[in-house]
From TrEMBL:
InterPro entries assigned: DctM, TRAP_DctM
Membrane-spanning segments: 12-40, 52-74, 94-123, 144-167, 173-200, 221-246, 252-270, 282-304, 324-354, 366-392, 404-426
Pfam families for this protein: DctM
Organism: Desulfatitalea alkaliphila
UniProt protein name: TRAP transporter large permease subunit
Source taxon at top rank: Bacteria
A GO-annotated cellular component: plasma membrane
Amino acid sequence: MSVELITLLMLSSLIAVVLMGFPIGFSLAGIATIFGFLFIGPQVANVFMLRLYVVFADYILIAIPLFVFMGIVIERSGVATRLYDTMYVLLGRLRGGLAIATVLTCTIFAAATGVVGATVVTMGIMSMPAMMKYNYSKPLASGAICAGGALGILIPPSILILVYAPVANVSVGALLIGAFIPGLVLAGLYVLYIAVVCFIKPAMGPAIAPSEIKVTIFQKTKMFLTSVFPVCLLILAVLGSIFFGLAAPTEAAAIGALAAVIMAAFYKALRLGVLKEAAIRTMTTSAMVYLVVIGASFFTSVFMRLGCGKVVESLVLGLPFGKWGILICMWAIIIVMGAFLDWIGIVMIVVPLFSPIAITLGFDPIWFAIMNIVVLQTSFLTPPFAYTIFYLKGIAPEEVTLAHIYQGVIPFLLLMLVAVLLFSLFPQIIMFAPKAAGLI
C-alpha cells in the first residue's frame, strides 16, 4: 500500500472516529495502534512505551496541574465577583459600560486562571442579569461574555500554551510571555467595538444613571485595592518570574498555585472543602489532558514513522498560493476544524504537521505558534460545537436564545480575524516581549 493511501486512511479514519463521538485521546491512540500493528508490526509497542515515558518525564507538562489548581482556587475565592463589582462601579455610567466591564473582567480573570469554562460561566451568572436589567442588547451582551471568556486560551497562564509548546517543540516561556500583549490587544479591540457601537446606537448599551451608583472616591479606591490589585500581583508573580528569568514556567506555575492559596486565605475563602474540590477537579482535568497528549504522541510517532508527515508537507508546500497563501490555508483548516473539534484535538492533529511546514516557509516558530493560538480562539465561538456558546446558554436567562448568542459572537469572530491581520502586518507586537526577556 502506498504512503499516500496510508496517509489518507489514517486521517480519514481519525476524523470519522472523532465525529462519531469517541474521546479524542482514545481515538488517537486507537488509530495509531491499528495502523502501527498493520504496517510496522508488534514492535510498535516498544515505540509506544518510549513515547509514554517521554510524556510522563516532560518537566514542562508538570505545570498543567499546577495552573489548573491555581485557576480553580481563584475561581472559588470569589475574585471574579469582586472584579466585576469594581468594574461595574467604575464603568457603569458609560454607554456600553457593563459590556466593557464584562470584557475587562474576563481579561483579568483569564490572566489569573487560564480556564475558559470557568470564566464564561462565572461572568454569565454575574453580568448577564445586570445587562438584561438595564435593557442591553441580548446579542451584544452574549458576544461580550463569550469572546471575553475565550481570551482564557490566549492570555497566560493558558493550558493551551502548555500543551502546544512541547508538541511544536518551542519554548513554553516564550509563548507565555509572547501571548500576553496580543491578548491585551484583542481585548482592546473588543472594548473599542463595544464603545463605538453603543455610541452610535445608545439603545444597545444604555448608560446607568449616576443616581444608581453612589460610591465615594474612597470606596472606589478600596474596591480597586482589594480586587484588581491582588490579581495583578498574582499575574506579576507568574509572568514576572518568567520574564525576569527568576523561574522556569513550571516553577512559576508552582509560585502561582501558592499565591492563589494565599489570595483565597486573604479573601477568607480558604476552606477544606475548597481545597478538596480543587484537588479533585485538578486531578480529573489533568488526567484528561495527559490522556490526549499520550494518544497524540502515539498517533504522531506512527504517522511520522510511516512517512505520512512528508506526504502532507509535500502536498501543502505544493499549493500554488505562495507562502502567505499557504499560511492562510492552514489557518482556514484550523477554523473549520474548530467548528467540530475542541482545541486540544486540533492542536494534537495539526500542529505536528503544520509547524515544520511553517519553518520551511521561513516563518518564525514562536510567531507562528502564537498566531495559531489566536486563530484557535475561533473554536470556542464557531457553531455548531462552540463551547462558550453552550456554557453561556446553560446559565443564561430564558429570554436569551441560541439565536441571540450566535448573532452576538459574529462581530467578535470578525475582530479575531482583524487581530490576525494586525499581527501579520506587525509581527513585532508578538515578538517584542519574548525578545525583551531574552527567550528567543
